[in-house]
């Protein structure tokens, strides 16, 4: 096919779409089902209606081929676990008795059975359920969900492409099941898994699938020759099948690198590649391997992870170059649109001109179809769209919102000394112990307490004008009083105020910092039914006035025990926002760090002796390629130290991280120079404690003993046993006792019971320690 005919054949598609619905109907239906207010059949009806609505919206926007199978009640990797029959033994009875109940038990656990471990999906804030596989795992195909959803779309008269997690990525994301031999690698199960994929592909072909997409994002990471050989073998075997649809192997989030030639020569009919800035090297690499003759190329030129409008002319230039490298070039976003909100038109509080700088999922589908039209018919067919796009890009570039000379001058004046504490840790810790007088194995929580319905109602009433600010603040004060009283009665050593006044750990601060924009309906799935509204980091950042000092001081006035000041760190403020793309992220992080530094210093001046600066996104944002990591970690750790470096030696700085793999950033954790770090550890059985010990981490740490992402209440003995495991890695004088994460999403009954058990466990194990 010539470049001209390839252009004429260009079509628009997407890899996936937000699941929740315009008013988070899926979240409400699922949570209603959990509470017994919604039947299983009603939940299925809601889900089917949302799928139909999504597909119809995509088709109406001009998307030629809609995705199926990307919709999920909880997580698409968990759906894959069901599809291949890799149900953990502890969940088999529940799944057999009631597949829907068993599915949610794997995701959330029950009082008697622990859930699957949860961690971040590559370098995003989306969490997936980690498959547990062992040498005895027996796979069995169950394509019912995938086939049913394909048939739903075909019945609407749509061209549909099922989307599956690819077999190589599925195995690379898995972890050894409990009891698996040391050194077991799930990838060794590939030959056992491929026949199951073959069966699913045959079922989809029989149901009417012409193409099936197999997502292999794990191949954009550094991979060993053995892993690349496994990928080559997988697609050689799947490609050799006779009873299958055409295969589109998709990669995203970064450059494909060494895996590109492997997939380019595989006997599959198409590849999908990311061509946004993060993966721009894919263009030259594709040319270097001779392109994709006789194959379909799906070009991800619209950023599926950020919300700024696309530069249409730049994307058309990229697409034009690609025309000579494949038999057919289609246009797509760089990844599933799961990672962005649904629709900008729902936003009423953002100034209309600024709103034109933004593209959520529906706007991105419009960009994709515009680019496909321009590629197929020429730029003359999209003259008006190009003119409007140029105007929007110029408006943003020239806006005073984006540049504040005072912020830039302050950032330029930063010295290395600004990012260092005045004394080394060994001297600081002595001062802190003398000042705080805490027992061995001190107990605390991560920060937030349950956000009750009354609190949410009060916040909604304030927004709606049904109560005034004074009435709302009285409600917040009452909640803080209750939280402080509970913690004192339970016996916690270092208290928190509970964050009753906060809507979200990033949004709350973003709404008080200049340079940020906040949305009203910009919901994005974080995990399960947990949705967040990432703010938009649009310009230079500064702090007009203190943000947390008043509420922290009020909480401290209610107790003699230390109350932690609670802040979100600069890296997480970037990672859990839609960050500006017009300057290096390190520059933006420095601006945020300086604003937070002012808050830290004001907290200390107001008498706060323990200040926690949370960085749960430090590992999440780690670049997928090893070569890119040193530069990121340099500016990320500098930003944290700049935030915390101005306090006295006897002020104790805490940080917190959760739900990520920490082993490969232990040195960076050390470089933060925090006095205490709390980390997720309950689901991973204290793995991070062993990793800290292996590194020789010299500071204090609190690996969590209570998994807050599950409604189950751990017993005191269960928490005590985790604590004993932690003590085998970290000495008692440096070990804290805390939950994995904040308690915002939990209910009060389970919180009360779990924290009482946590304190009992700490006292029990403290009593087992040898007398000093």
UniProtKB/TrEMBL annotation:
Binding residues annotated for L-methionine, in chain numbering: 446-448, 499, 614
Keyword Nucleus assigned: no
Superkingdom to which the source organism belongs: Bacteria
Record GO biological process: methylation
One Pfam family linked to the record: Meth_synt_1
Record domain Cobalamin-independent methionine synthase MetE N-terminal: where: 13-323
Domain Cobalamin-independent methionine synthase MetE C-terminal/archaeal, residue spans: 441-763
GO molecular function, a single term: 5-methyltetrahydropteroyltriglutamate-homocysteine S-methyltransferase activity
Chain positions recorded as L-homocysteine binding sites: 446-448, 499, 614
Cofactor binding annotation: Binds 1 zinc ion per subunit.
Gene3D superfamilies to which the protein is assigned, alphabetical: 3.20.20.210
Cofactors named for this entry: Zn(2+)
Positions bound to 5-methyltetrahydropteroyltri-L-glutamate: 24-27, 120, 576, 620
InterPro entries per UniProt: Cbl-indep_Met_Synth_N, Cobalamin-indep_Met_synthase, Met_Synth_C/arc, UROD/MetE-like_sf
Pathway(s) where this gene product acts: Amino-acid biosynthesis; L-methionine biosynthesis via de novo pathway; L-methionine from L-homocysteine (MetE route): step 1/1
Keywords: Amino-acid biosynthesis, Metal-binding, Methionine biosynthesis, Methyltransferase, Repeat, Transferase, Zinc
Catalytic residues, chain numbering: 709 (proton donor)
Family (UniProt): Belongs to the vitamin-B12 independent methionine synthase family.
Functional note: Catalyzes the transfer of a methyl group from 5-methyltetrahydrofolate to homocysteine resulting in methionine formation.
PANTHER family: 5-METHYLTETRAHYDROPTEROYLTRIGLUTAMATE--HOMOCYSTEINE METHYLTRANSFERASE
Protein name per UniProt: 5-methyltetrahydropteroyltriglutamate--homocysteine methyltransferase
Organism the protein comes from: Streptomyces javensis
Name of the gene this protein is made from: metE
């Amino acid at each position: 096919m010539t470049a001209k005919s390839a252009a004429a054949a260009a079509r628009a598609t997407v890899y996936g779409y937000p699941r929740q619905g315009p008013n988070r109907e899926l979240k409400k239906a699922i949570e209603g089902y959990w509470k017994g207010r919604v039947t299983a059949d009603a939940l299925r009806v809601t889900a089917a209606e949302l799928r139909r609505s999504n597909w119809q919206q995509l088709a109406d926007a001009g998307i030629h081929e809609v995705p199926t199978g990307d919709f999920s009640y909880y997580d698409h990797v968990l759906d894959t676990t069901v599809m291949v029959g890799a149900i953990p033994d502890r969940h088999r009875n529940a799944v057999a008795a009631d597949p829907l109940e068993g599915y949610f038990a794997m995701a959330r656990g029950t009082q008697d059975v622990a859930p699957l471990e949860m961690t971040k999906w590559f370098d995003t804030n989306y969490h997936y359920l980690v498959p547990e596989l062992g040498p005895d795992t027996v796979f069995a195909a169950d394509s019912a969900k995938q086939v049913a959803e394909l048939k739903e779309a075909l019945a609407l008269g749509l061209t549909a492409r099922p989307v599956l997690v690819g077999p190589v990525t599925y195995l690379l994301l898995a972890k050894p099941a409990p009891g698996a031999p040391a050194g077991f690698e799930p990838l060794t199960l590939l030959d056992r898994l491929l026949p199951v994929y073959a069966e699913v592909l045959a079922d989809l072909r029989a149901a009417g699938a012409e193409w099936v997409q197999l997502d292999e994002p794990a191949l954009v990471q550094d991979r060993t020759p053995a892993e690349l050989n496994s990928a080559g073998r997988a697609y050689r075997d799947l490609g050799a099948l006779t009873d299958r649809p055409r295969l589109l192997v998709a990669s995203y989030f970064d450059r494909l690198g060494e895996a590109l030639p492997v997939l380019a020569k595989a006997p599959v009919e198409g590849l999908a590649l990311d061509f946004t800035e993060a993966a721009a090297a894919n263009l030259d690499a594709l040319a270097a391997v001779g392109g994709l003759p006789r194959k379909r190329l799906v070009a991800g030129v619209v950023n599926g992870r950020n919300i700024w409008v696309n530069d249409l002319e730049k994307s058309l230039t990229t697409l034009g170059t690609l025309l000579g490298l494949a038999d057919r070039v289609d246009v797509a976003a760089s990844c599933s649109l799961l990672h962005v909100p649904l629709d900008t038109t729902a936003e009423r509080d953002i100034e209309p001109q600024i709103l034109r700088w933004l593209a959520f999922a529906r706007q991105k589908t419009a960009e994709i179809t515009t680019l496909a039209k321009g590629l197929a018919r020429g730029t003359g067919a999209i003259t008006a769209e190009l003119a409007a796009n140029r105007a929007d890009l110029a408006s943003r570039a020239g806006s005073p919102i984006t540049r504040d000379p005072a912020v830039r001058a302050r950032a330029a004046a930063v010295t290395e000394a600004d990012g260092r504490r005045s004394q080394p840790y060994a001297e600081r810790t002595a001062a802190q112990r003398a000042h705080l007088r805490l027992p061995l194995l001190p107990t605390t929580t991560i920060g937030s307490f349950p956000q009750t319905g009354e609190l949410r109602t009060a916040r909604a009433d304030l927004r709606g004008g049904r109560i005034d600010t004074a009435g709302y603040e009285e409600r917040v004060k009452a909640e803080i009083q209750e939280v402080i009283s509970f913690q004192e009665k339970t016996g916690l050593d270092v208290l928190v105020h509970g964050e009753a006044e906060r809507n979200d750990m990033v949004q709350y601060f973003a709404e008080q910092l200049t340079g940020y924009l906040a949305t009203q309906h910009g919901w994005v799935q974080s995990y399960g039914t947990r949705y967040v509204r990432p703010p938009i980091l649009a310009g230079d950042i500064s702090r007009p006035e203190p943000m947390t000092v008043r509420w922290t001081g009020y909480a401290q006035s209610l107790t003699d025990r230390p109350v932690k000041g609670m802040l979100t760190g600069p890296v997480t403020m970037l990672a859990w926002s839609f960050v500006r793309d017009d300057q290096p992220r390190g520059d933006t992080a420095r601006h945020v760090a300086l604003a937070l530094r002012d808050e830290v210093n004001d907290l200390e001046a107001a008498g706060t002796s323990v200040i926690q600066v949370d960085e749960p996104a430090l590992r999440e944002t780690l670049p997928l390629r090893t070569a890119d990591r040193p530069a990121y970690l340099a500016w990320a750790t500098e930003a944290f130290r700049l935030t915390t470096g101005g306090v006295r030696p006897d002020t104790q700085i805490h940080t917190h991280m959760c739900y990520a793999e920490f082993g490969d950033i232990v040195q960076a954790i050390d470089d933060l120079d925090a006095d205490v770090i709390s980390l997720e550890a309950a689901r991973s059985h204290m793995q991070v404690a062993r990793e800290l010990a292996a590194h020789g981490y010299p500071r204090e740490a609190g690996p969590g003993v209570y998994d807050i992402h599950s409604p189950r209440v751990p017993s005191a003995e269960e928490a005590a046993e985790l604590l004993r495991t932690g003590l085998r890695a970290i000495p008692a004088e440096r070990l804290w006792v805390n939950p994995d994460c904040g308690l915002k999403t939990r209910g009060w009954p389970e919180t009360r019971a779990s924290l009482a058990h946590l304190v009992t466990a700490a006292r029990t194990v403290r009593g087992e320690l040898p007398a000093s």
